[in-house]
């Protein structure tokens, strides 16, 4: 029978009507239609491999069109010509699908094998994945997640905040890229997905009037002291909240390499203002402990406190000039900017901030700049005291 005379309508016609028993009818070379008594129809083919004949189901009709069945038949014939058994390949693909990890399973692989050993933000990665990814896709196969689904998820997160959606995309993209490196996936569904939110250059610096107002705002004691310690020391929020008493000796706080963002041990001079914020001196433990035993306050709690205060600002008109349109990290920038205005050089400020240096000379410069850092932070402490008590 000529191929062009067979159509999808033909396969639905009387010629292929169901009978009392299942039957096979070949309607063109290599291609059969299997019809069951219930009316179910499937495309099948008979092929010979290594001297043995095998029936191979191509797909169900009408879910699979005739044109698709013809294309699949050609692919099967090409495999046989290349010395490959289509049935064996089909069984291997089924096994791979069964053994393929779910999203929840691979989240743990990603966190244990990549994020925790390599990222200081591993806890934030876990929080994002447990909050938005696992509840939605946890039981799904990782390989089954599609690009439109990721875009839809990011749209949902963007309602809470476009920058949070950016962070979520970054974590998902890293996880799928890691899956490619481990041979779990061939392609990432995150490819060509643009960040949902526009990242703006952060340049918020609090004025001296705002700093004075901040000093009088009522937060919980630990939250207040941690926020102001960021301002007094110019250190990163996560490094301040993780401060331990064992790291403090006399007037110096030593941030261990495994806590520092750039992986280099860092010494911070504690001026009188900073020391007054640390609270009662203890021999060991966290300087800013959380309610959870043995844990420091989370830096996200500081940001949350500022957001909550901003939400209540209309009800509290006595906050003076303070609008709360800033983050904990902006306090670090504020310190650096005002130290510059006091005459501290950019090099010394960079040393105080413990910024990574990429110049060739940095490889040879192993001087610690402790004296310069102390002078700058003492001057900054005096200025803070003047502002607070003016």
TrEMBL record:
The keyword DNA-binding applies. InterPro entries: CB, DNA_brk_join_enz, Integrase-like_cat_sf, Integrase_catalytic, Integrase_DNA-bd_sf, Integrase_DNA_bind_dom, Integrase_recombinase_N, Phage_int_M. Belongs to the 'phage' integrase family. GO terms for molecular function: DNA binding. Pfam families: Arm-DNA-bind_3, Phage_int_M, Phage_integrase. It comes from Geothermobacter hydrogeniphilus. This is Site-specific recombinase XerD. Gene3D superfamilies: 1.10.150.130, Integrase, DNA-binding domain (3.30.160.390), Intergrase catalytic core (1.10.443.10). GO terms for biological process: DNA integration; DNA recombination. Residues 101-180 form the Core-binding (CB) domain. Residues 201-377 form the Tyr recombinase domain. Keywords: DNA integration, DNA recombination, DNA-binding. PANTHER family: PROPHAGE INTEGRASE (PTHR30629), PROPHAGE INTEGRASE INTS-RELATED (PTHR30629:SF2). It comes from the Bacteria.
